[in-house]
Amino acid sequence: MAGQSDPHISLFSAEEVEFMAEDELIEIVPNLRMDPLNFICGDFGPFLPQIATQVPFWLAVALKKRGKCAIRPPQWMSVENLTQVLERERESQGAFQVLPFHYVEISRLLFDHARDDIPDMYMVRSLIEDIRDVRIHKVETSLEKFSGTSAVKIPNLSAMEVNIIRPFVGRALQAFYKHDNPEKIPDVDRASSAQTRAANNEPRMIMAEEFYNYIQVSKRFFFFFWFAAATEEITNHFQPASDEGTSVLLETLFGESYLVPFSL
Amino acid sequence: MASSAGEWSAEQIDDYETLISTTDVELLKKAWRNEKASPEILPFEEALVKRAKEQIQLMEETVDDFEESGHDPLIVSLYQMDLDRVQFLLRSYLRVRLQKIEKFMFYIWKTDMYRNRLSIEEEKFTERCIRDMGKHLEETVLSKMPDNYQSVLKQSVISEEDDMVPEPQLDTFVVAKCERTTRPLYLDGSRQSAGFNSRQVAIRTLFTV
Q1: B8 vs A200, B1, B17, B97, CA distance in Å?
Q2: Spans of all domains in chain A
Q3: C-alpha separations of A195 from A131, A201, A216 in Å
Q4: Is this structure's pTM higher than 0.90?
Q5: Of the candidates A66, A101, A151, which has its C-beta nearest B202's C-beta?
Q6: What is A14-172's CATH number, 3.90.1150.10, 3.20.20.30, 3.40.5.50, 2.70.70.10?
Q7: What pLDDT digit, counting tens, does each position of B164-199 carry?
Q8: What is the ipTM of this complex?
Q9: 164-203 in B: which are within 8 Å (CB) of A?
Q10: What is the CATH number of domain B9-168?
Q11: Contact A1 B166 (CB under 8 A)
């Protein structure tokens, strides 16, 4: 059915990734006395002044906003450790250093809400930004290398980094996969297209990431347009005005046009 | 059982400990994440959703009690935050499922395997959805088409299968994070084996393992 598909059901927004990170535990030092909190997500506390305790991140941030606690930055967030990580990250081309799965989100939350609790805040911040840049760059260069394959392994990649590359890598791998397995192409009308191909001695249809079929009703015929779009962007901007316009447009976009009269 | 307790491996005890310490919120988060990332509809987590609903209701009552009894507003707001988070998870989980149903309603309805994965409410929803969508297409387009092309499910009367029904694409790639080291998996029927370590993030085709 047209018009109701949502291609983004399976994508996580940055906010949703942050939401997941907020369940990570962190140590806080409360400055108030409070009974244990029996939440649905677990029991936390009791809270006593100057006695450190573990709470989920969202709770730490909520208390911090109200000035009720100090957050103890996690151990990996020290200048020495981060400097080392950055160094090793720069040295090794392919591998990623071990960092918490949610390090991007956690550091971001801390910088936003608990500036005064981080020693050498500006130093730490720029170090983490550098690490992030180096890692993202590494991801990008490693992406250039992989070819048609059924699995890609990337050790130590963090949640936010995965989320950034997920939409692109997923579709790109799918494209590779389809190139490798032409029989897996979800052909709407396999029999007729195979016949047409054989009859016209056409080259095998090019496949790219998305496969769309357009059905247009003209006076006498059903025309089947099927084409592979290089990017989703193109298809989004792509508004067929008329039969003629469509085939011209297909040619300019993909070099070849596939216009098969659907004989009935 | 005392006799078998001695035979438990460290891993099993580990498993058991994580199992009892895992809250329903964690389970719900997992269900939500899986549901969101998979192209097809997954079995409905009936028991889990029921438990979550009960806990939410209980917590709502508690928060109301707190408010009436003049508890510290700070504590009330913290409980409210916890409640909001769980509610968000539950709503988002149910909503993703509804989106999938809307997308693949005809396919889910005619495929027993998928149909059995729905909850009773979702089944009702699917039924209504199909009726409304069918009626809408009927009135706007199909009734004005030639006789041969009036089916909602088929291109034309000569089609043998329902070729206008969108199906979830199952041979797509998913991103997976392994929780522990696995034995080598044979992907895609190939000779190439791949062991996954606990911290590796892998992107692979679904359902080819």
Answers
A1: 67, 11, 12, 38
A2: 14-172, 185-262
A3: 55, 10, 21
A4: no
A5: A151
A6: 3.40.5.50
A7: 888 887 766 666 666 555 555 544 433 333 333 333
A8: 0.75
A9: 164, 166, 169, 171-175, 177, 187-188, 190, 194, 196-197, 199-203
A10: 1.20.58.1030
A11: yes
